[in-house]
Amino acid sequence: MKQYLRQLPAIHELQKDPRFKSLETEFNLSDVQLTEFLQKEIGKLRQSLLAEETLVKEKVPDFAGQLFNLVEDRISEWQKDRLERVINATGTVLHTNLGRSRLSATSIARVVKTAENYSNLEYRLTEGKRGSRHDIIEDLLVEATGAEAAMVVNNNAAAVFLVLSALAKEQEVIVSRGQLVEIGGSFRVSSIMEESGARLVEVGTTNKTHLFDYEQAMNEETAMIMKVHTSNFKMIGFTETVETAELAALAKKHHDVIFYEDLGSGALYDFKKHGIGDEPVVREVIESGADLVSFSGDKLLGGPQAGLIAGKKELIARLKKHQLARVLRVDKMTLAALEETLKQYLGDPEKINELPTVRDIIRPAAAIQVQAQSFVDRLQSESSNYHSELMASTSQIGGGTMPGVEIPTYVAAVKHHSLSSEQLAARLRRAKPAIITRIQDDRVCLDFRTIENTEMMALVAGFVACE
């Protein structure tokens, strides 16, 4: 194969080829960019020939044509969106792998407006002086939670780390053994605590922890009692935990001890009134006496990724001054989306359905049934290669939220005449936009709890394209 190395075209020859200018125009590239792509592909082809990995049948192979084809494929792959739109047909509202919460239309508009303009991110307009981004939405968080003060960092794990580092470093933090949870990506509460410099004191057992367990562990080294809401699992049976109000009262008996509750998902809306789960509302936890609470922005709140911390003014002030606060701060677009999300909670209660997360969780099964039936009818009329029917099923909340809670829903169960359910699901994932489904009883199931009416045409088209 080494004899063909001399036949590889030189870069300057390829630059004169009409296909060079054609690719530049098609992909909007400069001479330098396209040349770099060609150099990389020539390098790969040269190595392949040296290793005798490339099979050459022609005496005078068309290396130039081969290289331009390779470069065209490479550029197409390089220019495509890495973060692609998908249709979530799983019915899991807070699907971590699919981006969790979708923003409301007003939040999206606010992000766009903030991104394309300068803003008063760290500037006090009335005084003409430098300000703090912590001030942007603090009043909204205070109003929404009932806390004295509040701040925002980039996610809830960061919030936990900041609280422990700033308020309990080299001191003891008491946590029930049953609350030493591990969240996605092998991220453990105990590990965060170790990295923060706080000393973990475990009390109770995996399934039962009593108030006296906490009382017996208290000493002059105790800085904090920490309660972790077990958002991503649920223990049933012979179990017992200590309520927030009891732990808050215990901390107050020891004047310098802080009671901090990590809520994980954190809800500003009471889903319990719809018979969905038993997630505590943040305001209720504050009213029960917690000195600090932290929770996520992109889970039950339905906003952007963020970690929200609310509580006593003096403690929040200490957190804001800590060096980590700058490391963990959020950008202007996160603040814009969060501001608009909080305003929707504080506005007209009748418009809460404008938040996609809240709307999808409380959406009645009857409305989902109508939408699913519409899809079944349309698919049957568009293609004879599918058999589809309506089925009662259940949806999950997702995102490590409300484990074990299943909400009644309806799915379209689809079977292809010749493809297996796994083959069909794989083809749907390669559709544009990608359609993510679930497989049940050897049928591809689409849960319409998480499918917009505006996505119906793309959904049907995706199935037809997979025939």
Notes on the structure:
The modification N6-(pyridoxal phosphate)lysine is found at residue 299. It catalyses: L-seryl-tRNA(Sec) + selenophosphate + H(+) = L-selenocysteinyl-tRNA(Sec) + phosphate. Its EC number is 2.9.1.1. It is found in: Cytoplasm. By secondary structure, the chain is α/β, with parallel strands linked by helices. It folds into three domains: 2-78, no CATH class; 86-95 and 361-465, Alpha-Beta Complex (Aspartate Aminotransferase, domain 1); 105-354, Aspartate Aminotransferase, domain 2. Helix content is 40%, strand content 19%. It contains 18 helices and 17 strands. Helix 2 (18-27) packs parallel to helix 4 (63-79), helix 5 runs antiparallel to helix 14 and helix 16 (365-382) packs parallel to helix 18. The chain starts with 10 loop residues before the first helix and ends with a helix. 36% of the residues are buried. The mean pLDDT is 92.
Please provide a brief summary of the model.
By secondary structure, this protein is α/β, with parallel strands linked by helices. It has helices at residues 11-16, 18-27, 31-50, 63-79, 105-115, 138-145, 156-168, 189-196, 211-217, 244-253, 282-287, 313-321, 323-327, 332-346, 356-362, 365-382, 421-429, 456-465; strands spanning 86-88, 123-124, 129-130, 149-153, 172-176, 182-183, 187-188, 199-203, 222-228, 258-264, 292-296, 307-311, 386-398, 401-416, 434-436, 438-440, 443-447.
